[in-house]
């Protein structure tokens, strides 16, 4: 009996942690709106006009992408702001990249996890699909906290996990200690486009 339970637990965990990268999305119509939501990493701080990752991604995938990034925003502020934007634009897809300012201000990962999860659920309640973009914690390892994988696994989301960490580790892809430059944002756009293709959205 114990062996059976252990096997069941292993299968559950494999499903939980494995469904993020392999999660599927419905095809994204050409006229569909995409809402890129986040803080300065979405806004494009550190690069010129038209060089943010949403701007570059829109050209790559041939879709209208609305850049809804606000520099300095915490996840709690994002959670309060998101419903109005979802109702205004009625996007088919939400690209969610949030939590970095919580980490920079030592606000705690638990609050960021709760807020990001709540944002995903707000979108889902409106029939909006979600792709999650993990943000590094800007600590010694520059790796994303496990909260992003937990949320992706729990809610069955496609997730881009490694690209921002790779960018932040490479001085040639940054404009300062935490923001990409134009080349860094282009790399992020390419990674998100690859995730959308793998998920079947484009």
UniProtKB/TrEMBL annotation:
* GO molecular function term, any single one: phosphatidylcholine lysophospholipase activity
| Classification via SUPFAM superfamilies | SGNH hydrolase
Identify the domain of life: Bacteria
Q: Tell me one Pfam family matched here.
A: Lipase_GDSL_2
Read off the CDD domains from this record: Lysophospholipase_L1_like
Q: Describe the location of the SGNH hydrolase-type esterase domain by residue ranges.
A: 36-187
PANTHER family for this protein: SGNH HYDROLASE-TYPE ESTERASE DOMAIN-CONTAINING PROTEIN, THIOESTERASE 1/PROTEASE 1/LYSOPHOSPHOLIPASE L1
Write the protein's name: Lysophospholipase L1
Q: What is the lineage of its organism?
A: Bacteria, Pseudomonadati, Pseudomonadota, Gammaproteobacteria, Methylococcales
């Amino acid at each position: 009996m114990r062996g059976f339970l252990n096997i069941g637990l292993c299968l559950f965990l494999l499903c939980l942690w494995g469904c993020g990268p392999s999660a599927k999305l419905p095809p994204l119509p050409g006229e569909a709106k995409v809402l890129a939501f986040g803080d300065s990493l979405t806004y494009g701080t550190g690069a010129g006009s038209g060089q943010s990752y949403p701007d570059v991604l829109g050209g790559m995938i041939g879709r209208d992408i609305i850049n809804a990034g606000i520099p300095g925003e915490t996840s709690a502020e994002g959670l309060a702001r998101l419903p109005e934007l979802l109702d205004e634009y009625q996007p088919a897809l939400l690209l969610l990249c949030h939590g970095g300012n919580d980490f920079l201000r030592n606000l705690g990962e638990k609050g960021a996890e709760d807020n990001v999860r709540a944002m995903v659920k707000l979108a889902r309640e409106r029939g909006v699909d979600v792709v999650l973009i993990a943000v590094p914690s800007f600590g010694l390892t520059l790796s994303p906290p496990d909260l992003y994988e937990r949320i992706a696994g729990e809610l069955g989301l496609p997730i881009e996990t490694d690209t921002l960490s790779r960018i932040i580790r490479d001085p040639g892809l940054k404009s300062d200690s935490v923001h990409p430059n134009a080349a860094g944002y282009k790399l992020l756009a390419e990674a998100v486009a690859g995730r959308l293709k793998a998920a079947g959205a484009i």
